[in-house]
Amino acid sequence: MKTTILPTATPNAIETALNSLHAGELVAFPTDTVYGIGTFAFNAEGATKIYAAKKRPPDKALPILLGDINQIPLVAVNLPDAALKLAEHFLPGALTLVVPKHPDIPEEVSSLDTIGIRIPDHDFARALLNAAGPMAVTSANISGAASPVDAQAVYQQLNGTLPLILDGGVTPGGTSSTVVDCTTPKVRILREGPISMQEIQAVLEN
Predict the structure, then answer these.
(1) Is residue 42's pLDDT more than 90?
(2) 96: closest CA among 71, 121, 63?
């Protein structure tokens, strides 16, 4: 497969991405943290392609990126109060919330009863996600390798596994998001990132 790099400033960039997604293919694009590779959140076959491209163990669930907080009910159910509070305060931003999974989410996206959700603080990423709907997205790198912060780094690792990389320059964050499990009585950090536990606790205690 030929991999094309297309600047996000190209007028038809989102339309081109949607065409690839509707064809069942993967698309890489910039977010506020690192570049992600994604497919529609409800596309089981697309999710399988992400695992293959990244050489990622299939038991590791794929996070879901959203364009707006109003999309949360499409992918999650019975949101804990802590998740709602953190979403309202930190999203859009570099925080992934682990919450109960909507039954329509395929097993290939998450074989667990939970799903990680996030809204990126990145104008182009949100425009794409609002046009596409929720997407299963993870960092656009070979599993275990460095997460890419520019389109060329994505190309070097994943060339030939996807048709389209959307080039938005260097991502502003450069570090993967903080992941917080909201399904337990006391929230806990599963992966440290830009948002600290102290910041999270401060919001929950207010």
Answers:
(1) yes
(2) 63
In sequence order, the 6+-apart residues with CB closer than 8 A to the CB of 189 are 178, 179, 180, 181, 197, 200
Going 69 to 74 to 80 to 83, the CA torsion angle's sign is negative
- Reported as a single tens digit per residue, the pLDDT across 171-196 is 998 888 999 999 998 999 999 999 99
- Which pair of structure tokens corresponds to residue 80? 């804990």
Assigned token pair, 30:
């910039």
Using an 8 Å Cβ cutoff, are 200 and 86 in contact? yes
Pairing of strands 35-40, 114-118: unpaired
Q: Tokens 């950090």 — which residue?
A: 189
Distance CA 26, CA 10 (A): 19
**Which of 47, 11, 41, 29 lies closest to 132 in space, CA to CA?**
41
**pTM of the predicted model over 0.70:** yes
